[in-house]
């Protein structure tokens, strides 16, 4: 039986597969399933050619397997393939005639969730007539929506199935332009009931359809031009659509309610029940339409002004000044200042803008509303809450390593290396069995085509360690060699590709396609050497506190161990440790260094921990001293270091101060305004004592792992941030996933580092506050909020960056004003004062009015009112000049008062 199927497949005898299958009994079909699956895998293997790829099986062979799978498999094994078998419908119908599976009807009904099917509405009708399926209403509606033709061919189509289309539309309905004219024609011919269809259009607003489908029904409702009489009759359905999550539905319904609001038959009380929810909307068009309707309602006699007044107060949730002013004027004009209305409005007083408060003075209490000041706690990079938890024994390490593989590029990587140094020699015949799943995960991860550089190092470390353990525990780890051989053979086939970087083998022989990873690789080689020799002296650079910090006290303790063992630490390990050391509180560590250390170790850390100290040497390891100097005082040039030979490295890489400019590319429509940053070229020089930094600044390639480098330079991240700005922030309209991901990860890393910003930090933060991606903007906003609370931010400097961008309209000002109103304003008095300084600084950079400058000025006016401040003296002349602009005249006059 299996041999016969294999013969048909190998000789591509498509005409013989159905006769063969007809001879099989139910038991035979079931037994044949594993063989069918195996053959399917064989013909589905990808064959790579020089310019393309294809499967190993021919079209005839795939057809044979498709037929055999359908006939022999049950529903579970056949899966959800709605394409392969049905490409040849004549053949499919032939199969169904002699052997329609019992599961076929359920299988077809589930096709409503499929992206695409090779059968259509007509096929479903035919199969239903022959009894092959019992189609569900959802199936009929979904497939009919793809079939805007021949609607009168089957009596049930217009009588029943069309209404299923309204109740269960597919995603494709809005993309067939034929539907609406066809429906209008059938309504005119009275073949579709007009009133019922109008009602179905409104009910679509709350059926959880996607916005395209909901929008189509709203457009259809409007296109049919319902009369006032029809609208009055449909009031219940109109009101039912007001809570819809789709703004298109809500705004369409409000537009039609506006036509009948003046009618005596309008259900005012029912509408007022929906008003608070409508006025809490984030959609300005919904808010304005709701206010217009409410004002029309208040024109009518015998209107319940008390309830409407209390409902109107919900509009003050919006921070849009035009909405608040419109609401305040309606309340002042129509709503008496009763106790109930005053209480309702007072609930929103904290959110009310200054001009709205002036209008509603009679409705508010006389108590002045003041925001509290945030009490500032001293920022500490090293504290108990962020201390990392290291593995404490071999068993802990085995459970920790899979997490480290999953958290590539974070402190998990460092703790994994540290754990291997400490506990690699502790494996015994019982605990070593835990190594197999860890080894398997490392192999599975490294076997992928694209693997993060830190994962390549760690997985290789685990694999090589596992191979080393096999010699000691051959019985317990007998499966490891088989697992390793499989991935080793797979990589051997990949090595034929020109740009493939070898990932498996001795650590010193692996490659990443990234020069930046060289010092990490050198540290890893040293770690594996420790493992082989049973040397448990700790690494200096292992993180002690999240996300990337080393406690100064721990650094002293580790140097003391090397001193006592009379061993010189790895050069790159020392530099990485210095780069990661938290320098905000070093007094106690300084004392310990002076007491416990000697010679160069002592002089190095005494210099490093005290900014007042000058370097005294001995300078046996120039790279250590240079790294300490850059990390401690990046803008200081130490005369003592002049003979180290590092003068060929451009000073920008030490100071972190790069030249940048926002330019107007008038000739470039794709990038009209561009952020240009100048990063000097640096070619790596072979020297006796290379800097860790040199490997990073000499790397010219882009890499998605660039943000992870911030964990290696948390004290001086400027050279990393500058590169990210050049790659991913040169234009505010970038929408590519790569650039967005790169920028977001950098913003998240900066948020975790929690240090005062340097010049590139301010450029990055100011630029991301204007970014087109909402998540990136919100993350940048979180950085600003926290830095203001900790009083570690210069808002003048930040405002200058934003102002220099926006004077050329680098990004729409509305992005920034929305962010201020929704996230940055009225957080605390401290934050309002910081906003005042920042906006003043932004405006000082402006020369001529830009689009939406009015909104920024209105927010500035509001902030000044809240802070009881006056405009920056430097803005006087600018506002006088801008006042000549008709759009800005009013707000400029208010600011100049």
Count the beta strands.
Answer: 4
Q: What kind of assembly state do the chains in view correspond to? A: single chain
- The count of helical stretches stands at 45
Main sheet record: 2 strands, antiparallel
Return Rg in Å: 36 Å
How far from one another are the termini? 96 Å
Describe this structure in words.
The protein has 897 residues and is mostly helical. Among the domains are: 267-283 and 300-327 and 335-370, no CATH class; 388-536; 538-647, no CATH class; 658-896. The strands form two sheets. Strands 1-2 form a two-stranded antiparallel sheet. Helix 9 (137-144) crosses helix 10, helix 19 (305-312) runs parallel beside helix 21 (339-346) and helix 25 runs parallel beside helix 27 (480-494). The N and C termini lie far apart (96 Å). The model has no long low-confidence stretch (mean pLDDT 91).
Jot down its keywords:
single chain, 897 residues, mainly alpha, two-stranded antiparallel ribbon, 45 helices, 4 strands, flat, coiled coil, D-tyrosyl-tRNA(Tyr) deacylase, DUF7824, DUF7825
Topology overview:
Elements: H1 2-10, H2 14-22, H3 26-43, E1 46-48, E2 53-55, H4 59-72, H5 75-78, H6 89-99, H7 104-109, H8 121-129, H9 137-144, H10 155-167, H11 179-188, H12 194-203, H13 211-223, H14 228-233, H15 235-240, H16 247-260, H17 268-278, H18 284-299, H19 305-312, H20 321-334, H21 339-346, H22 354-359, H23 394-406, H24 411-423, H25 435-446, H26 453-472, H27 480-494, H28 518-533, H29 552-565, H30 571-580, H31 587-596, H32 599-609, H33 622-632, H34 652-655, E3 659-664, E4 673-678, H35 692-698, H36 718-728, H37 737-753, H38 759-768, H39 774-789, H40 795-806, H41 813-824, H42 829-845, H43 853-867, H44 876-882, H45 889-896
Antiparallel strand pairs: 1-2, 3-4
Helix pairs in contact: 1-2, 2-4, 3-4, 9-10, 12-13, 13-16, 16-18, 17-18, 17-19, 18-20, 19-21, 23-24, 23-25, 23-26, 24-28, 25-26, 25-27, 26-28, 29-31, 30-33, 31-32, 32-33, 36-37, 36-38, 37-39, 38-40, 40-42, 41-43, 42-43, 43-45, 44-45
């Amino acid at each position: 039986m299996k041999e016969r199927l294999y013969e048909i497949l190998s000789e591509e005898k498509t005409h013989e597969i159905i006769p063969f299958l007809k001879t099989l009994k139910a038991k035979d079909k079931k037994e044949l399933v594993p063989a069918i699956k195996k053959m399917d895998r064989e013909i589905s293997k990808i064959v790579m050619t020089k310019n393309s790829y294809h499967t190993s099986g021919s079209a005839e062979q795939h057809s044979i397997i498709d037929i055999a799978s359908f006939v022999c498999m049950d529903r579970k094994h056949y899966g959800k393939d709605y394409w392969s078998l049905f490409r040849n419908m004549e053949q499919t119908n032939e199969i169904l005639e002699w052997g329609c599976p019992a599961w076929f009807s359920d299988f077809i009904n589930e096709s409503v969730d499929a992206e695409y099917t090779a059968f259509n509405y007509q096929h479903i009708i035919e199969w239903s007539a022959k009894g092959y399926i019992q189609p569900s209403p959802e199936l009929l509606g979904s497939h009919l929506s793809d079939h805007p033709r021949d609607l009168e061919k089957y009596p049930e189509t217009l009588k029943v199935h069309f209404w299923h289309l309204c109740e269960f539309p597919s995603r494709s309905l809005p993309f067939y332009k034929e539907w609406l004219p066809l429906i209008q024609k059938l309504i005119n011919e009275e073949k579709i009931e007009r009133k019922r269809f109008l009602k179905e259009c409104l009910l679509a607003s709350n059926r959880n359809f996607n916005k395209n489908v909901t929008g189509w029904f709203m457009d259809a409702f409007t296109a049919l031009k319902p009369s006032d009489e029809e609208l009055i009759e449909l009031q219940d359905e109109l009101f039912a659509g007001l809570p819809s999550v789709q703004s298109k539905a809500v705004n369409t319904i409000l537009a039609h309610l506006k036509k009948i609001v003046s009618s005596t038959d309008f259900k005012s009380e029912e509408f007022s029940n929906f008003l608070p929810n409508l006025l809490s909307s984030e959609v300005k068009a919904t808010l304005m339409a709701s206010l217009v309707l409410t004002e029309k309602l208040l024109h009518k006699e015998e209107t319940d002004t008390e309830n409407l007044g209390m409902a109107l107060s919900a509009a003050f949730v919006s921070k849009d000044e035009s909405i608040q002013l419109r609401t305040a004027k309606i309340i002042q004009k129509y709503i008496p200042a009763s106790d109930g209305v005053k209480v309702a409005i007072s609930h929103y007083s904290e959110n009310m803008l200054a001009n709205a408060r002036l209008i509603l003075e009679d409705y508010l209490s006389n108590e002045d509303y003041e925001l509290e000041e945030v009490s500032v706690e001293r920022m500490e990079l090293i504290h108990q809450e962020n201390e990392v938890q290291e593995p404490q024994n071999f068993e802990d390490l085995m459970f920790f390593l899979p997490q480290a593989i999953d958290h590539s590029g974070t402190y998990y990587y460092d703790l994994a290396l540290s754990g291997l140094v400490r506990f690699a020699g502790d494996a015994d015949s019982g605990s070593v069995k835990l190594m197999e799943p860890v080894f398997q995960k490392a192999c599975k991860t490294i076997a992928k085509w694209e693997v993060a550089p830190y994962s390549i190092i760690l997985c290789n470390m685990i694999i090589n360690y596992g191979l080393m353990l096999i010699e000691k525990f051959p019985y317990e780890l007998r499966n490891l060699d088989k697992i390793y051989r499989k991935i080793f053979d797979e990589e051997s086939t990949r090595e034929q590709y020109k740009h493939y970087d070898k990932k498996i083998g001795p650590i010193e022989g692996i490659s990443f396609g990234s020069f930046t990873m060289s010092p990490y690789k050198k540290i890893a080689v040293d770690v594996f050497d420790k493992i082989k020799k049973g040397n448990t002296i700790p690494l200096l650079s292992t993180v002690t506190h999240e996300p990337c910090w080393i406690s100064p006290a721990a650094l002293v303790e580790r140097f003391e161990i090397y001193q006592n063992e009379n061993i010189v630490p790895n050069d790159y390990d020392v530099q990485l440790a210095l780069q990661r050391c938290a320098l905000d509180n070093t007094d106690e560590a300084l004392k310990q260094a002076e007491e416990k250390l000697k010679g160069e170790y002592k002089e190095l850390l005494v210099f490093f921990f005290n900014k007042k100290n000058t370097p005294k040497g001995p300078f046996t390891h120039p790279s250590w001293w240079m790294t300490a100097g850059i990390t401690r005082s990046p803008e200081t040039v130490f005369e003592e270091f002049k003979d180290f030979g590092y003068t060929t490295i451009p000073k920008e890489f030490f100071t972190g101060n790069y030249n940048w400019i926002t330019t107007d590319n008038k000739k470039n429509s794709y990038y009209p305004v561009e952020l240009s940053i100048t990063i000097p070229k640096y070619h790596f020089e072979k020297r006796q004592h290379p800097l860790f930094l040199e490997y990073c600044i000499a790397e010219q390639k882009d890499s998605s792992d660039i943000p992870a480098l911030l964990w290696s330079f948390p004290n001086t991240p400027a050279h990393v941030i500058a590169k990210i700005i050049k790659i991913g922030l040169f234009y505010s309209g970038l929408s590519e996933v790569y650039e967005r991901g790169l920028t977001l990860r950098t913003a998240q890393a900066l948020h975790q580092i929690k240090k005062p910003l340097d010049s590139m930090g301010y450029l990055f933060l100011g630029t991301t506050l204007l970014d087109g991606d909402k998540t990136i903007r919100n993350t940048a906003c979180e950085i600003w909020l926290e830095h203001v609370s900790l009083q570690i931010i210069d808002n003048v400097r930040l405002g200058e960056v934003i102002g220099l961008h926006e004077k050329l309209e680098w990004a729409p000002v509305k992005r920034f004003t929305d962010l201020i109103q929704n996230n940055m304003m009225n957080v605390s008095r401290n934050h309002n004062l910081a906003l005042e300084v920042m906006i003043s600084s932004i405006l000082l950079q402006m020369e001529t009015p830009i689009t939406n400058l009015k909104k920024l000025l209105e927010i500035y006016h509001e902030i000044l009112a809240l802070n009881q401040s006056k405009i920056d003296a430097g803005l006087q002349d600018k506002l006088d000049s801008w006042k000549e602009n008709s759009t800005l005249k009013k707000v400029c006059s208010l600011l100049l008062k």
